[in-house]
Amino acid sequence: EGQLSANDLRRHYPAGWRRAFNARFRLSRSLQACMLRPYLLRPALQLINALPALGTYLVTHTRSNDVLSRE
Predict the structure, then answer these.
(1) Best CA proximity match to 27, nearest among 63, 52, 2
(2) Is the pTM of this model over 0.85?
(3) For the residues 24-45, what does the mean pLDDT come to?
């Protein structure tokens, strides 16, 4: 029990991968778009400075846990 056959793994892996990473990639793409536009970046940084929890959220939701645990 709890084991997948190679066929089941091949069939279920793509959906599992998307479930695990799509939200992170969407957020990362949005941040990248903001950072590449100075007229958006300045107010975004001011907002993050005013709300440090927002900065923490952005970091923790765009990085893997193993990268964060090395700090």
Answers:
(1) 63
(2) no
(3) 94
